[in-house]
Amino acid sequence: MNHQGIRLLLLAAPGLLATSALANYSADWQHYRLNGESSRQLGDRVTEVTYELSASDAGAPYQQLRVYRRFDWQSTNLDALAEQQCGEPQLKVEQGWQIRYLSCEQVVPVGKAVPASSYDFGYGLRQGRWEPLAGTPTAPRQDTLPLAERLVLGHSERELDRCELNAEGRCAEQAWQYRPQDWQQLSVLEETPNERDGRLEQIFFRLQPVTGSQAASQVRELHVWRQYSWLLDEAKTQQECDEPQTRQEGNKIISFRMCRQTLPAGSEVQVVLKDTGYQYPVGGSEWQALPETSEWQESRVLNRPIILANKEELLDCRRSDGRACSEPDLPDTDLLDAEAAKIVQDASGQPAPVWQENYGHDDHKLLVVSRGIQRLLAANQPAHPAMKQLLEYVRAHNYYNYGKHQEDGPAAAEALAEALTALGAHPLLYPEQATDEVGAVIGAWSIALHGQFRSPAVQSRFGTLLGQFNQMLAYSTQHASEINGRHPWATGLFDLLNFIDFASDYATPFAADFRQQDDELRKQLHALGMSELALWQGRDGADLFLLNNVLDAYTRLYRVARYTRPDEAEGYRKQLDDSVIAQIRHHGLIPGGAQSQTLLDDMSLTLSTYYLTYTDRTSEACISGDFAGLCTPIRMEDVLPFEHTCSPTLRLRAQELTMSQAEGICRELGAEEQQFHRQMETGGQPVADDLNEALELVIFDSSADWKRYGSALFGGVSTDNGGIYIEGDPARPGNQARFFAYEAEWKRPAFQVWNLRHEYVHYLDGRFNQYGSFGHYPLNRTTWWSEGLAEFIAHGQCFARGMDNVSAHPANERPSLAEILHLDYDKGGEMVYSWSYTVHRFLNETGRGGSWLAMAQALRGPDQEQAMSAFEAELDQLIASDSEAYQEWLAAELLPWWEANKDSDACKGNDSSH
């Protein structure tokens, strides 16, 4: 049995011969030579190969080695490796018929590489004694075993043709007929192959019957075109690339190389063949088409490479100023002063500096931005690209100041309110042609105002601003055919309609303005809903995104009316209902309407679970009243009928689970809860003021069902994720913490709830570690703790996705310990989940568990300032004393461990998303 290419790997560590320790069996064979090998079968599909080796130099720890490699190929699908082998045609007689047939075997040929699992063990001879080799038996590994002899898996016969025997036992005369794989009676006069892209596409054959054959009595000549259709496995391709080149395109210098995806020579491929053509019959006067033939498939070994695809690979792209082409084009800032130009630059790109907390969101910058807006307006440039970036700064400014409950100074607030009002009034913001820039600025104008509604300067102008909002709605409706489906307008209109959403939170100061503008406001919203924009042309066809937002705006107006003039609320709601019904009838969105069933179902879902709910009704209004027959009641108990109590602290609600599946979830999370308390040393004691005694786990049947029903049934919860934990306010009596998840439908028939263990850790961390609700502590200090802890507890050592991310980064690209401990969610998934995980593992595997538990203890304190002081002291100490140790541990311990264990069954199977 020949096993060429198989090598045994032994390592003699420096100084090994001077000790009595056994040499570890590992990845080096430089001190030995192979003298011989033999094999034997230990079972049906278990083969053992014995290797005899001797020392080749004085550095070898042993004089001789005897190594046994055991191959287990019981689970190999031999049928997939087999090929059919047939002999020459044979004859037999059965029940008055002479049958010509082929006898065939399904054979796995000798030398075929069979996938197998293998491991090594063995002995070394030293000073006259045989000793077991240290490090053996080795861990099982994926391997291949060349078969020593062919395996016959089965026999079959394939009939070629038959004839009925006459009284004399001979075949009756039969007309000859062309068969693609039976050319015994034909000779080739001419053969012309045609190729394309390095592969045979067609061969033309001119054929003539052999003299004296039956074919010669039927036809004089044949023309046959044999078509080749190649079945090429792209997984076996190799990439070949030329040397890098450069070219200039405008002001950009592009570095690239040309690459080819090829199947190399020697590859075994399948090809489908089919013959078509014509024959000239004996005694005939014109060519006749050959009879219809069937396709057949053959295996071929390529004698030269086949090119599957050519592509240009971009290596680098630089502008003439040296900036990467991927960086956004910076708006022209010639119209602005230096300070405003700097803010425009800082608001561009991702991540934009203006979104950093320490950027300085102060009155001075707000005045600079307001002055910049006015300068662009004075130059009649309301939709100038720099305008959106100035408004982006206002958005970031509002975000940080609102989060800290800071008020802008009167002068800065007044200047900004004046600038935003002037922008909304500028006539060139409403040009004859609706450009994408206009849509972007309209949306940015609305967002800039969201955070300013508490400002007295804006409140004094709200009536004017509301009139401008109406004008923007009217402009969008007027240009519906131009803007439908354009992405900047999708974002712009979404942000614009949120104007009503945010403004409705200020019912008291805005009550008079809302009432004065109400007729016009409802008129413009109705017109927008009646326009073709209601059926927005999205990437995957028509959708109801804009109509749904119009309905949302109606619910906000209803709440303002109910709060400010409750005696008119019912009549006001009737006016809104009439508008909604007119819109859905106009667009054929009623049951049996002209739209697709998907749109009809979506409309029914929006009405029953959103519009009716937020106008103080239930989905039962779909049965009686004005909405009767226009929607279907969507009830929690109908969508999520399955309920099960795991324990006093965990309840399940699901679309569909078997009792076995539910009990499996209960056991898994119960074990994780015990592990959490043990590792975190909580003593099972919740933090103060946490009344979330029981978590409700809601499980949908699929990711599609989660997106469809999640927001509708649970008050607008975000569904653009893989599941989410909503803690709520744990100090509020009656608060219900919920974890939303769904079954990973792509795993079926295996059952797996996606995201299960990770999100459950968030519940445990929030109840037993972190005081208060989500965001109680600064996220740029605790994000690494929350997300890394969830991955660490949920996945242990085998966090496959995270470790793959970490191992892909060379040493010079790895983040520092300080960067991880100070990250926020905007740093991206790899930092938030993968690198945060490594810090928790570092603390627990390197004797720093005391610091880890001290952080947890600090977060449990109800005094926020005291808690963060203690927590940050631990962070500062880690950064000061352990930053270098963390990097050394990564390089010397964690990454080598992962390289050695990533292909284990435990790690390969751990693929749950965060």
Features of the shown structure:
single chain, 914 residues, alpha+beta, Glutaredoxin, six-stranded antiparallel beta sheet, 24 helices, 24% strand, disordered N terminus
Task: Kindly describe this structure.
This protein is α+β, with helices and mostly antiparallel strands and 914 residues long. Among the domains are: 126 residues, no CATH class; 132 residues, no CATH class; 140 residues, Glutaredoxin (3-Layer(aba) Sandwich); 137 residues, Neutral Protease, domain 2, CATH 1.10.390.20. 38% of the residues lie in helices and 24% in strands. It contains 24 helices and 28 strands. The strands form six sheets. Strands 1, 2, 3, 7, 8 and 9 form a six-stranded antiparallel beta sheet that branches. Strands 11, 12, 13, 17, 18 and 19 form a six-stranded antiparallel beta sheet that branches. Strands 23, 24, 25, 26, 27 and 28 form a six-stranded mixed beta sheet that branches. β2 and β3 form a beta hairpin. α18 crosses α21. The protein is globular, with a radius of gyration of 38 Å. The N terminus is likely disordered. This is Collagenase. InterPro entries: Peptidase_M9A/M9B (IPR002169).
Q: What's the architecture of one domain, going by CATH? A: 3-Layer(aba) Sandwich
Classify the beta-strand content into a percent band: 15-25%
Span of the ends, CA to CA: 49 Å
Mean residue pLDDT: 84
Largest sheet properties: 6 strands, antiparallel
Spans of at least 5 consecutive residues whose pLDDT stays below 50 are: 1-22
- Enter the CATH topology name of one domain: Glutaredoxin
Number of beta strands: 28
Percentage of residues in helical conformation:
25-40%
Number of helices: 24
Give me the CATH superfamily of one domain: Collagenase ColT, N-terminal domain
CATH domain class of one domain? Alpha Beta
Indicate the structural class.
alpha+beta
Query: Whole-number radius of gyration?
Result: 38 Å
Shape: globular
InterPro entries: Peptidase_M9A/M9B
GO biological process, one term: proteolysis
GO molecular function, one term: metalloendopeptidase activity
Cofactor: Zn(2+)
